[in-house]
Amino acid sequence: MKSTSTFLKMKKEREPIAMMTAYDAPSAKAAAKAGMDIILVGDSVGMVVHGYDSTIPVTLDDMVLHSKAVRRGAPDTFVVTDLPFLTFNGDFGTTLSAVKKLMQQTGTNGVKLEGGGRTLSVIKRLTEAGVPVMGHLGLTPQSVGVLGGYKVQGKTEESANRLVEEAKIIEENGAFALVLECVPRQLAAHISSLLNIPVIGIGAGAETDGQVLVFHDAIGFSDGFSPKFVKQYANIQNDIEVALTDYVNEVKQLTFPGTEHTFTMDENTLEKLYG
Ligand code: KIV
Ligand code: NA
Fold first, then answer.
1. Residue 223 above 90 pLDDT?
2. What is the Cα–Cα distance from 27 to 70, expressed in whole angstroms?
3. Average pLDDT, integer, range 95-119
4. Are residues 228 and 182 in contact, defined by beta-carbon separation less than 8 angstroms?
5. Which EC class is this protein assigned (predicted)?
6. What is the DSSP string of 206-255?
7. Residue spans per domain, the chain
8. Contact by Cβ (8 Å): 227, 216
9. Is the backbone peptide bond immediately before 26 cis, with ω within 30 degrees of 0?
10. Mean of pLDDT values over 176-188
């Protein structure tokens, strides 16, 4: 299995890191087969799987359930799990027990925490406790209420400077990687060159040390809005709708099931039973 030192080495050798979310065993298995370097069990699961309109309702138990499924599907891939909304912002004991539960019960390899500010010291304490931590700056969806919507971050001088300072502290505090979401590509390039740890971008341009996308976005498994930074590598939603429509039609027209889908009894038994 790859490790945090693999990712540092990949950055040094300029080998881009490919990361994607997965939330269940079959998608994790597909990601592993594709050669994904890191699987993220993102709290985006709340939006793309559970149908919430933000990540706020996602619970620790949700993350435990999905992380277990991902671990079973991809036993040899480095997996990171998001700490969900308000599980790491209060007393450190609560944070520790959340992380303990996740790591011991699911076998995930590390956790991701959103934000700068007070999250910075939590990152430090967790890494000191032996937990591999990934930071997450820029657009941090758990703070959507404070940010006032899903908007590009770091566009002003003040916010760009703050992001650079927080990124540096995240590295100093022991994180093994940093996700930068929805920031101008020039700022992402600058932060990537400043840090020794890999910077993994989403909506952050091509000059980061790796990329991450949400599984459902990447395979076109949604009929909703798709942000500018998403590239759809397939249109699974359409394929599914076509398949399900075919199924409904065949059931109605009695063309499914065919004989090849059907079990039969041998003639002797049939004779004895029904004459
Ligand atoms: O939850 C998620 O999918 C994420 C990625 C977008 C980085 O945090
Ligand atoms: Na997330």
1. no
2. 8
3. 98
4. no
5. transferase
6. S-SSEEEE-HHHHTT--SS---TT---S--HHHHHHHHHHHHHHHHHTT-
7. 4-234, 239-274
8. no
9. no
10. 98
Mean pLDDT across 47-73: 98
pTM recorded for the entire structure:
0.97
Element (H, E) at 136: strand 133-138
Amino acid at 168: K
Span from the CA of 237 to the centroid of ligand 2 (angstroms):
22
CB atoms within 10 A of CB 93: 8
Residue 241 annotated to the active site: no
Predicted local confidence at residue 29, as pLDDT: 99
Measured at the alpha carbon of residue 232, what is the angle toward residues 84 and 199, in degrees to the nearest 5? Answer: 50
What value does the mean pLDDT take over residues 113-130? 98
2 pLDDT exceeds 90?
A: yes
Who contacts 178 (Cβ-Cβ below 8 Å, separation ≥6)?
134, 135, 136, 137, 167, 170, 171, 191, 195, 197, 198, 199, 200
Looking at every residue in the chain, the average pLDDT score rounds to: 97
Give strand pairing partners of 136.
Answer: 114, 179
Give CA angle at 61 (58, 63), nearest 5°. Answer: 65
- Whether residue 42 has its Cβ less than 6 Å from ligand 1: yes
Give the nearest ligand 1 atom to 212 CA: 7
Q: Around 35, how many Cα atoms within 13 Å sit in the side-chain half-sphere?
A: 2
| Ligand 1 atom closest to 200 (CA) | 7
4-234 folds as: TIM Barrel (3.20.20)
